[in-house]
Amino acid sequence: MVTGLPFGGEPLSYTRFSLARQVDGDNSHVEMKLAADEEENADSNMRANVPRRRKCNGSICYGTIAVIIFFLIDLKTMLSKELDAAQFTSTIEWLNGNSYIPREAGSEKDENLAFAIKNRFRDFKLSKVWHDEHFVKIQVKGSAANSVSVVGPSNDTIHLVENPGGYVAYSKATTVTGKLVHANFGTKKDFEDLKSPVNGSLVIVRAGKITFAEKVANAESFNAIGVLIYMDKAKFPIVMADVPVFGHAHLGTGDPYTPGFPSFNHTQFPPSQSSGLPNIPVQTISRAGAEALFKHMEGECPSGWEIDPSCRLQSSENKRVKLTVNNVLKEMRIINTFGVIKGFEEPDRYIVVGAQRDAWGPGAAKSSVGTALLLELARIFSNMVLKDGFKPSRSIVFASWSAGDFGAIGATEWLEGYLSSLHLKAFTYINLDKAVLGISNFKVSASPLLYKLIEKTMKDVKNPTTKRPLYEDSNWTNKVEKLSFDNAAFPFLAYSGIPAVSFCFCEDADYLYLGTTMDTYDALVRAVPQLDQMARAAAEVAGQLMIKLTHEIELNLDYEMYNNEILSFVRGLNQFRADIKEMGLNLQWLYSARGDFFRATSRLTTDFHNTEITNRFVMREINDRIMKVEYHFLSPYVSPRESPFRHIFWGCGSHTLSALLDNLKLRQRNSGAFNETLLRNQLALATWTIQGAANALSGDVWDVDNEF
Q1: What is the pTM of this model?
Q2: 551 CB neighbour count, 10 Å cutoff
Q3: CB 328 within 8 A of CB 373
Q4: What pLDDT is recorded for position 266?
Q5: Which Pfam family, giving just one, matches this sequence (predicted)?
Q6: Per DSSP, which regions of 34-152 are E strands?
Q7: Which domains, ranges and CATH numbers included, belong to the chain?
């Protein structure tokens, strides 16, 4: 342990890496290693929670801080008054009028609403209003109906179970026949726990827990030939048993036929498709259809599943299930609509606030709530600027996305089209989708860079039903859920490296009607009687985040939080220390990279302490370093086309830290399937990605202070 006084006289304890010179014959090298016990004890010492004391040179600094605090308090009051006058339920009801539902992506009603929103942005007198168009491939139901049947030994139809009203976009269009096996929710563990193999069989799974796409990918990895998905009564107690269900099966986001490319008109890209598209058919069926299938199945489902008593495990002898999917691809024009309030100091630095506009079915909870919040926030912030004297330093972009129901297509195509400039200018995405699904809980999914800001906001905003602050648990960050594929914030974080947050007021149970024809305004009001109050609270959360991100001089992104994320990863690796040693590897370089990242964050904090906040030029340079932290965790060693979600913490693919740990677990569980060459590459590339992030955070090359 070394204790120094590098930060304005404030003591800081940290662990130094030992430099041990080893001599073996004629060969010698310098080895940087952290002893096992030292590494384990480092948890409390390497968190880099440096007290943020500012070096102030004179009354100007203190005066500036006082003015900032005064204006923040004043802005919160200003926001609160504007929110009190907002008509959230009226806007939600307007969005769910007959003129705009149903509004499936690319439909006439979707386009009509896009231009209605554009006109409203103009009415609000935003700085600029515009839209862009993308031409994307969307899968729709074909002219021939999809079907699910029970057949006998000679493929003769015993019972036509259903011609489903819903469908799953991006399913393979084909016909398959085989034994049917129930796989609970279709998680990897569910498949591993099954006593009946699914190889060559169809599987039936419940909706919930994970996305449709993940269920299908898991089934395909266990060699199933088709998937049926239904909403069981235990988890989704909907009275009507014949409610159709919609979803998509693309394990990814964006147009799966232009992976990594923007789908602008006339773009000439070679024919390609996303590796996340399934190679098996998948279809949703109603609960009534599932119960009809269970009558031709046998074996009681495990009590641990907590499922309907009608559930059965596998097809009866001499009975199989035939699934036919006739979906077709259709090129559609989709429209994203934008408006911006330009910043007064740094208009070229901005946050993006967005919501999905389209929906299969009425989409009251799925898209109307988020779109209503978007419109009301645009109106409120415009009023604050034009009438109340608010002068945000940075810009606010409001975005209405299309084709969100098909895998955040509108948002992803926009990111793909402008990635080269967005990562230099956009520093946060706030997602408003499904922000009100209940009243009891407040749930957050976000980049660690935003945790501290979210916590401040939770302390300021009260739950309208309990009248208590949203912040009730000091360990709330342990409950933060990873952004899922079906969240529009996911591509911002995992593809573009832009910090993102998504939140909702909700219940412990899933909202019953998402992705169904019952997602109506009336159903939402019945589920959330205090809809206007809850929408106001959601708008207040987003509004306070927007103020703090665009008004304060320093970017409200806590780069030090990634020290904890790296530490957590190293802890996970240390559980496999014996395996790593057996392969002749060690973690010395990873420890060094981790230390360098810690020192880089400490150096940045020091630079911030020693800078006059009135020096806009220097503060901009510091803020630029802060806003690129997330981006530098995108692995530079994989192709954006082959592995678009390059983030090593939150992405998807063999380059991620979770994939590295999974590979090590495989060595213990199934050594025959373990790939040592892959592991060596994973460890090397993960180490250098962290090292690269540390170097970038340090600033100029002559300021880099590392032990590599």
Answers
A1: 0.90
A2: 19
A3: no
A4: 62
A5: Peptidase_M28
A6: 128-140, 147-151
A7: 67-138+331-551 (3.40.630.10), 144-325 (3.50.30.30), 560-697 (1.20.930.40)
